[in-house]
Amino acid sequence: MTKLQVAIDLLTTDDALALAAKVAPHVDIIELGTPLIKSEGLGVIRAIKDAHPDKIVFADLKTADAGALEAQIAFEAGADLVTVLGTADDSTIVGAVQAAQAAGKGVVVDLIGVADKTARARAVTNLGVEFVEFHAGLDEQAQPGFSLATLLEAGSASKVRFSVAGGVNIHSIEAVKAAGADVAVAGGAIYGAEDPALAAAALKSELN
Ligand SMILES: O=C(CO)[C@H](O)[C@H](O)COP(=O)(O)O
Question: Where is the Orotidine 5'-phosphate decarboxylase domain (predicted)?
Fold first, then answer.
């Protein structure tokens, strides 16, 4: 079954905790967004893990270098999964994977900015990552003509375990599931909704 991951792209620990409390019953994975971690530091990871020990806590570090060190400090803070950029050197990904293996946790590779996402997804899967994120970032989503369909096609073609992130919402989630994604990531569609719990529940019901 496709899991639902909420991406919390808010800026304070208090706001993140409040959102997580509302949506946790409807999601499988709680992601601490990159701006949140940069704003609040690793303490936000510990705060969310302490509040939701039963959830998979995903720290969107977007690591580009020093893979082992960055992964290790996030795992020590309570993260279950961390992201490393697919544009990073293989050695950075391998370092993070080694830190994950030592901690009994996992690494996700974010393909934001990667030209041939299907080929890179296959290559990094062979390095031992949990899954690969087919991702169009917030800036790419804002470009004229952006379409999630290209990401979904690339993900399906990869034949590896993958998630999809890029403005996933109630209109596109069925296509994400149909593409065979292991995880559907939704940020703005949940935290930007008038009723985030209702929005998360609606997305989850499409995946069941
Ligand atoms: O990692 C991110 C941006 O770099 C976002 O968390 C991700 O894109 C999901 O958010 P949204 O559904 O709003 O696109």
Answer: 3-203
Q: What angle do CA 124, 130, 131 make, to 5 degrees?
A: 65
Dihedral angle of Cα 82, 46, 52, 1, to the nearest 10 degrees: 0
Query: What residues line ligand 1, using a CB cutoff of 6 Å?
Result: 7, 9, 33, 60, 137-138, 141, 165-168, 185-189
Please state, in angstroms and rounded to a whole number, the distance separating the CA atoms of residues 184 and 20: 17
Which domain does 166 fall in, by range? 3-207
* Complex ipTM value: 0.98
Averaged pLDDT, 48-52: 98
Gap between the Cα atoms of 204 and 28, Å rounded: 9
Count: domains in the chain: 1
CATH of the domain at 121: 3.20.20.70
Instruction: Compute, in angstroms, the gap from residue 43 CA to the centroid of ligand 1.
Output: 21
